[in-house]
Amino acid sequence: MKYILANVPGFGHVNPTLPVVEELVARGEEVVYYVPDTFKEAVESVGATFHPYELDLSNMVPPTGMGLGGPMSGIQIQNALPFRMIKESQRILPQVLEQLRQERPDAILYDAMCLWARIAAQVLHIPAIQLRPSYAINEHVKLFPMGQGNGAGSPIPPPFIQQIREDIAELCKQYQLPPFDLQSTLGHAESLNIVFMPRAFQPAGETFDERFVFVGPSLRPRHEKSDFPLQELAGEPVLYISLGTVFNNQLEFFKGCIDVFGNTDQKVVLSYGKRIQPAELGPLPANFIAAAYTPQLEVLAHTDVFVTHGGMNSTMESLYNGVPMVVLPQMIEQQMTARRVSELGLGVMLESSPDATQKLREAVEHVRQDASFRARAREMQRTIQQTGGYREAADAIMDYTQKTLQRA
């Protein structure tokens, strides 16, 4: 069978799909992967055919006067996702629609943020399977209460909502689609939806029907070349600090971590990203290892406490290794994750504050000293080990596609 996989250019979205693609290819299936050029090497390394599309992110900024113009926080950026998804659809569909028609795939697999792929599947009458690297959404679980306060102190302005609704109506008219509402841009479900987390972590997990397959983290050894000194982590308590790949330009925070955790009785691994120069961090204490990039799965295998932004990939990788967390969320979805981590006793949530690093030190010590956090993280680790991961995802995809073709 032949599959199209359509994704957005984000590591948190692409990474969970790569083991699934590798598994499908190993079973003799053909996968053509649509994503911008940044991910060409990663896509080809798992045996898929790479097809890029062009995306000018500068055109995805919400209009000024809508309450979301200018420099935006993580919360505001996430509020703007429906706007961005629609603009992406307007830009990408003319590039790829005829090519997709000629590909004649048996099914389209698409990330939940790829509205353009969902539209393409409808226009071309191709079976569609949704991939969710984060939470499934239904009437019990909503990430974005449109037009209201979202719990993060950043309501979406009504004029902005109206603009999005007009853009949706224009898109539906252009491609002769049944109308859909604003919430459906993020909350739409297909007949099969692959969710890359265990049902036990999903809020209201029991309310999702058989259309949702919770396969758990989709992880395979990445075989990346790295000169990171993993041997230095053996035999010592390890604190790992990383804010992911998007909102990691946090020099003052990292310097504060060096101040409060320097020369303590633990090894500290600090992943500071590509936008900070090593010299800006200043001299490092003897117990610190700082790197622009770290092999996260391998580091987490040695970690006692993980300080994280709460991105879903990082959260799942932490729980896959049974590591409790201190979560510093920067977006709505990450706040939801931080609350979930706290509710399940897997760690603690910290809000940003002027004395954030001092509170961070106290939180890390609390999570380290209270054995219940590690015990519950290991319990979730056992739950994850019982999920099928990328293999279960491939099984579900192939089974659904075969049954759909037989009915056609």
Automatic annotation (TrEMBL):
- Signal peptide per UniProt: none
UniProt keyword annotation of Transferase present: yes
Q: Which Pfam families has this protein been placed in?
A: EryCIII-like_C
Gene3D superfamilies reported for this sequence: Glycogen Phosphorylase B
InterPro entries annotated for this entry?
Answer: EryCIII-like_C, Glycosyltransferase_28, UDP_glucos_trans, UDPGT_MGT-like
Q: Which UniProt keywords apply?
A: Transferase
- For whether the record's keyword set contains Nucleotide-binding, the answer is no
SUPFAM superfamilies hit by this protein: UDP-Glycosyltransferase/glycogen phosphorylase
Return one Gene Ontology term, BP aspect.
antibiotic biosynthetic process
Q: Can you tell me where the transmembrane regions are?
A: none
Annotated GO MF terms: hexosyltransferase activity; UDP-glycosyltransferase activity
Q: What residue stretches are annotated with the Erythromycin biosynthesis protein CIII-like C-terminal domain?
A: 258-382
Family classification:
Belongs to the UDP-glycosyltransferase family.
Q: What is this protein called?
A: Putative UDP-glucosyltransferase YjiC
